[in-house]
Write a structure and sequence with these properties.
Number of helices: 10
Largest sheet: 6 strands, mixed
Structural class: alpha+beta
Number of domains: 2
Low-confidence stretches: none
Strand content: 15-25%
Shape: globular
Length: about 260
């Protein structure tokens, strides 16, 4: 799968690394018994696939009072299963202060994520994690044109080469846009034209409403009171209507950036 990931990102030359790094996490100062158990039980291997910086891809670094982008890591994580994705993603982004293009893979599917971190004013060797953005699970060998387009959009040669910050933000936008497959059943929007501020609220709201519907339907199954079941069904219908509103927002955004 590592070769497939290199191909998807279109990585070549001096940016390639191919280093096993799972053991490095165990030496982190905050890596307690619970985190070790998660890594042991859920992760087969972790590799540094590529390193993007001024020397390897000739894109200038970026630094201001809040953010620093001097190096970007491409990290591939082979999972033993797909049940603890969220915990693994959050932990790895939390432990690595640098921007990371994180790819989890299992059973011919990939799950991508990126994060936005700002400088820790008290310790510049550390970062304050602001937000994590995650993709859907994407099949890498699907004949479905929608999934093919989504996977092909991670070609880094199409990202902005202005600064490493612009380059990484294009990756994050591509991660966010993959979620539009679930929202609209399609993948059309151009990541280089969109912005994170427009994309993230739509993706977050869609996920939140689906979680609410799932929980309401679970409550319906558990209650035997007819009045409660009716009230819960009305709540489900209300949230479904809100989902439609979110889909309409997504449609408008796609049309805006076509």
């Amino acid at each position: 799968m590592e070769e497939t990931i290199k191909s998807i990102f279109n990585i070549d030359g001096t940016a390639l690394q191919n280093k096993k790094i799972k053991s490095i996490f165990y030496d982190h100062e905050s890596f307690n018994a619970e985190k070790k158990r998660l890594f042991d039980e859920a992760i087969e291997s972790i590799k540094l696939i590529a390193l993007f910086n001024d020397e390897t891809i000739h894109i200038q670094a970026y630094k201001d009072d809040m953010y620093v982008y001097e190096e970007i890591y491409v990290i591939a994580v082979e999972l033993k299963g797909d049940k603890q994705t969220d915990r693994i993603v959050k932990l790895i982004h939390l432990l690595i202060p640098n921007p990371v293009m994180l790819v989890l893979y299992y059973d011919n599917k990939i799950h991508l994520s990126g994060s936005i971190s700002r400088i820790n004013k008290n310790d510049e060797e550390k970062a304050v994690l602001e937000e994590i953005y995650q993709s859907l699970w994407l099949p890498v060998d699907s004949n479905d044109v929608v999934y093919k387009n989504a996977v092909q959009s991670f070609n880094t040669k199409k990202y902005s080469y202005h600064t490493l910050k612009d380059f990484y933000e294009d990756y994050v936008k591509t991660v966010l846009l993959s979620n539009f497959i679930a929202i609209l059943g399609d993948y059309k929007c151009n990541a280089t034209k969109c912005d994170i501020i427009s994309l993230a609220p739509i993706v977050d709201a869609f996920e939140n409403k689906n979680t609410i519907i799932k929980n309401l339907r679970k409550e319906q199954e558990q209650t035997t009171n007819f009045g409660e079941r009716v009230a819960l069904q009305n709540s489900v219908l209300r949230v479904i209507k809100e989902l439609e509103d979110i889909k309409n927002q997504a449609v408008s955004l796609v049309k805006k950036y076509e």
